[in-house]
Write a structure and sequence with these properties.
about 500 residues, mainly alpha, Glutamyl-tRNA Synthetase, domain 3, Arc Repressor Mutant, subunit A, three-stranded antiparallel beta sheet, two-stranded parallel ribbon, 21 helices, 13 strands
């Protein structure tokens, strides 16, 4: 019988959610939904020194914005709760004890000062096969010494004892057969001095307890794989071990290496899904949502960083991604992040989204700038007219504010040098030709005929007319603007501009 698909996204609540983390969540989610499986959100908060208040709620908010909704989570509960590792603390020590009893782990009593001294003495010091017998641990101390230290509650950690001269292999769903030499892997800490497990022990114990069937995680966790595989084996769970897939890195756009927040700051784009304010420093890091990205576009562009369906199609809705997603189409190579391409995705999604579906978001953008909008029907007309010109949702204000407020200023240098009394007379003559219900093409035809009658070229009148309507050299077709504004508003703007141009 085929194992039911259960996947998990297991972030640490330590700050903003990097777009790489969102992509990991997304690939887990797509795989689960493709196979009618379960998507679990588990919060890995065992490192209390890095815990940040509010980070868990922020992660949940980011996933919800993206349309990634867990089936089980700390908020929803589920069959395998609790879903915060800190609330599972009592379950881990038994596994550390079992590993010690079976000879697969040991107590290490080295103080932080002793470890620091070793690191200074030995460059690139690793606590493992080559060094463990020179350290203060239950492998080098007598049984009586170890018992005495434990009875006195001497601070200690539990480390895995990596075997000598072995190979650990597994088949990665993306990379194929992957093999590690155990001599090159250090003895990772499994249980910390405060009794909390490290990631290595907790992730294995929880994945087994929650019956996780497939693990999608970033390539940066690949070096930890041999430790985790051995733990599955040493704890007697080898037959229950999940399938593994290590996702390619999202790379910085101007070089090699993983994209970081520092790269985003340096190059002028966000790397977090939503705005994140550090509660300790008050520093705010901008996110894609607040910059003006649609969640559909954000999800679309993230999926295409390391995956494609084998065709030239680039725009996918979330249901389409679920339908077409396959692990076989995930690339092994890292994908460079291209912010211009990211904006292209957003532009395409804005264009293809109906005005009624953009309405509430656009209204929020205008409200943030204290611009009062007319009724919704008028606003939707404006949205339909300008959405093709918007790369970001925030562009709607710059591209459309003049529909709701007449220009307070004009680009006079663009007009004044070539402005004449004849042009002023033309516009005064054009005013009576403006009528509601007349289509843009008809208004344009009247404009051109009148220009000919005034011995003027229509082309040299178009720019002044645009500046009368919007204040500058931008916007959609000027006759479309006039039709949308209506005859009275258009007349009033011409009259106001004629005074400013004189």
């Amino acid at each position: 019988m085929e194992k039911k698909v259960r996947v998990r996204f297991a972030p640490s609540p330590t700050g903003g959610l990097h777009l790489g983390g969102v992509r990991t969540a997304l690939f887990n989610y797509l795989f689960a939904k493709k196979h009618n499986g379960t998507f679990v959100l588990r919060v890995e908060d065992t490192d209390q020194t890095r815990f940040v208040a509010g980070a868990e709620e922020y992660i949940v908010s980011c996933l919800a914005w993206c349309g990634i909704h867990p089936d089980e989570s700390p908020q929803l509960g589920g069959e395998f709760e609790p879903y915060r590792q800190s609330e599972r603390k009592s379950t881990y020590k038994q596994y550390a004890d079992q590993l010690i009893a079976d000879g697969f782990a040991y107590y290490a009593f080295d103080t932080p000062e002793e470890l620091d001294a070793k690191r200074k003495e030995i460059p690139n010091f690793l606590y493992g096969l080559a060094s463990r017998m020179s350290m203060r641990n239950s492998l080098t101390l007598s049984e009586e010494e170890v018992d005495a230290l434990l009875k006195n509650n001497t601070p200690h950690v539990v480390r895995i004892k990596m075997p000598a001269d072995e190979q650990v292999s597994f088949v990665d769903m993306i990379r194929g057969l992957v093999t590690f030499e155990t001599n090159l892997v250090d003895d990772k800490v499994l249980l910390k001095a405060d009794g909390m497990p490290t990631y290595h022990l907790a992730v294995v114990a929880d994945d087994r307890a929650m019956q996780i069937s497939h693990i999608f995680r970033g390539e940066e966790w690949l070096p930890s794989a041999p430790v985790h595989i051995l733990l599955w084996k040493y704890l007697g769970w080898e037959d229950e071990m999940p399938n593994w897939a290590h996702l390619p890195l999202i790379l910085k756009p101007d070089g090699n290496g993983k994209l970081s927040k520092r790269d985003g700051d340096r190059l002028g784009f966000p790397v977090y899904a939503q705005n994140w304010t550090d509660p300790k420093t008050g520093d705010m890091t901008k996110g894609f949502k607040e910059l003006g990205f649609m969640p559909e576009a954000f999800v679309n562009l993230l999926t295409m960083l390391g995956w494609n369906d084998g065709t030239d199609q680039e725009l996918f809705s979330l249901p389409e991604l679920i339908e077409k997603f396959s692990v076989e189409r995930i690339s092994k190579a890292g994908a460079k992040f291209d912010f211009e391409k990211a904006k292209w995705y957003n532009h395409e999604w804005i264009k293809k989204t109906d005005a009624v579906d953009l309405l509430n978001t656009v209204k929020q953008e205008f409200a943030a700038k204290n611009i009062d909008l007319a009724d919704d029907n008028f606003t939707m007309k404006v949205i339909s007219l300008i959405k093709d010109r918007c790369n970001l949702l925030t562009d709607f204000v710059a591209q459309g504010a003049y529909f709701f407020n007449a220009p307070a200023e004009y680009d006079l240098p663009a007009v004044k040098s070539k402005w004449t009394e004849e042009k002023a007379a033309f516009f005064n003559a054009y005013i009576p030709m403006l009528e509601d219900g007349v289509p843009a093409l008809e208004l344009e035809e009247r404009f051109k005929i009148l220009a000919t009658e005034h011995n003027l070229k229509p082309g040299e009148l178009m720019l002044p007319f645009r500046i009368m309507m919007v204040g500058g050299k931008f916007g959609p077709g000027v006759f479309d603007i006039a039709v949308t504004l209506g005859a009275d508003n258009t007349k009033n703007r011409i009259l106001a501009a004629l005074i400013a141009f004189a």
